[in-house]
Amino acid sequence: xxxxxxxxxxxxxxxxxxxxxxxxxxxxxxxxxxxxxxxxxxxxxxxxxxxxxxxxxxxxxxxxxxxxxxxxxxxxxxxxxxxxxxxxxxxxxxxxxxxxxxxxxxxxxxxxxxxxxxxxxxxxxxxx
Length: 128
Hints:
The protein is α+β, with helices and mostly antiparallel strands. The chain contains seven helices and three strands; from the N terminus they run H-H-H-H-E-H-H-E-H-E.
């Protein structure tokens, strides 16, 4: 028997009905004394209802994005310098080039504090 490539095997599986494929999996499990439970679990995120499960999981990393400097640009630059280790010129360039991320991949508490400080200075902020 000639050895089939992975692409050839996939082509064969594409032609099978779900019932035939299910029977093949059962025969494969019996022949090699394995279970396909792990493969089913991996395939499950692609299922139609999987999006709801992903939304339930809480994010643990957030980005604080400056979307506008507002009327008090100098105050916003000062807050950006306090939140980051940027110098005056870099902070000014960041504020002038909005929308730009001020902090990336920080925890929720740090993101909320930074957003509050920027809003208090008159900036428009978005936390993603």
